[in-house]
Predict the 3D structure of the following.
Amino acid sequence: PNIQTDFGPNRQLHDYSGANGTDIWTDATGRVTIWIPPCDGSNIRRGYCIWGPTGVSGGFNPTQRTTVQEWELANDLGDSHASSLQQGGAIPASSTALRTVGKVFSETGKTITVNLYPTNTTKNLTMNLYNNSGSIMQTVSGTGNLTLTYTPGSTGFYSVKVKNTSATNPLQVVRVKITYTSPRVSASASYPARMSQGNLMTEADVDELFPKLNEEERWGLNVFPDPVNSSSVVKFTMETNGKAQIELFDMNGRQVQLLASKEFQPGNHVLPLQVKGLAKGVYLLRLTTATGIETKKITLAE
């Protein structure tokens, strides 16, 4: 984007985040065009850069402020891009599947506060805070607005997930706000950017969701429920560590969705199937790995 700065005209600027290796100059009015790296992991930084006058060194002691980030979990906002957080959209009906809210980078000793605002205040929800190893650090359940607080014992990434406490709950949209404090120094290269827990659901979640299915039906390449609706998920198994690509095609052979294209650990995995904007009908789901190709026909009912 081209932005107005307070650095003045014809000033040389340097990106102190390291995302950009070349300095730039403001124009005669103090404006400058900057490049912001994407959030897909292709750059050392994700979605930010730090521009300032070139030659700044030493004595940099910025004010440390809290950051507030807000998310809305809705089916039109679910993101299945392989390099995203793989947020699953709204809290699904008749399910206790976890939905990923978001991830923050917080400093040790600085309290993280998470507020949840449901659209249905009579239904019990559960909200979990995870560390970067996928362990639950704090949890809260209840009806109405929920608040979770946690003081990290180490600097790093923390993730929030929400689910229905009861499988009898209806689908609902929720809004979540996370207040946290990042370190003064933007040196996140020492920390893994991806949460180690790659699945949106654990095997225990699957046991609860699909108790009537046998092992072969529950895993392999499968979709539940089918006919497909807004709460459907794709279940698949990786025999070995490696790349998996999961695509959805219409019956004309046109790719309509790329669910994943990344490395997966051996074991069972679950991904959301985003159907918003797709027409009713029959589709072909294809899983491609180093060991072969597996396909499955599915029917979109909504």
